[in-house]
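Suppose a colleague, Dr. K., hands you the sequence of a protein chain of 275 amino acids and asks what its three-dimensional shape might be. Before reaching for any lab equipment, you can write down a predicted structure in token form. Begin with the sequence itself:
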Amino acid sequence: MDKRDLKVAVIDMNNGAPNQGMRGIQEILSRFRHENNINLTFDIFDLRQKGEIPGIDYDTYISSGGPGSPLESKGEKWENDFFNLLDEIEAFNASSEEQKKYAFLICHSFQLACRKFGLGNVTERRSNAFGIFPITLTEDGEQDEIFDGITNPFFSVDSRDWQVIEPDFAAFEAKKAKLLAIEKERKHVDLERCMMSIRFSDEIIGTQFHPEADPVGMKMYLLQEEIKQAIIGLHGEQKYLDMLNSLDDPARIVLTQRVILPNFLNKAIGNLQEA
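The predicted structure, expressed as tokens, is then:
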């Protein structure tokens, strides 16, 4: 790959809550810069806590997950700023033949975008989903370059109290969006499978799961006594031990972290080179 500049805006949606996601995103960006010998720089914007929002002068945007309800922020300034940024990115891409701007939306950011574009029903789950779960690619997902090199199903960290279900396929068609991945099938549970990844446009993609999660961060999180007891209380000790044991499996979250966001960055840098 030729050396090029890539300017990335990382939007922190954690509202000051402790998390491993921001560290994971920064680790992927630093590794991508080193492995591809490019001048990648990134700035962090603390949106929900400090009201910081990037301008349209970045090449690529990555917006994190975060705590809380994706419904209660309706009308708040920080949410309006986030939605305005998505509109600016789409307007730029519509007016630019060659150079494009790219966005990757994770978990809370994904739920907000689904609500903004009316692609499904954002609802609270009956119980918290936390763990390393298999995720199923749709036919469109199997053909999408973002998942090139992944298995089907693949494994990722899922951590949420909310979900997006009941896809509005008329809205999908109107927006030319594509449903790329869905929740694992649970034959013993009569519940709608939630949407796990959507390509909102050629340049904007989102995931309900956490592609930035890595074994180091997850292990640090799981070994906290409060977290350990909460998981055992909800799911049992065997489930907790299974989570720990699966962290270093190269076919699970190690593969997901090595494939998805790097594929996204490769598309962005490739577009810059062509432009």
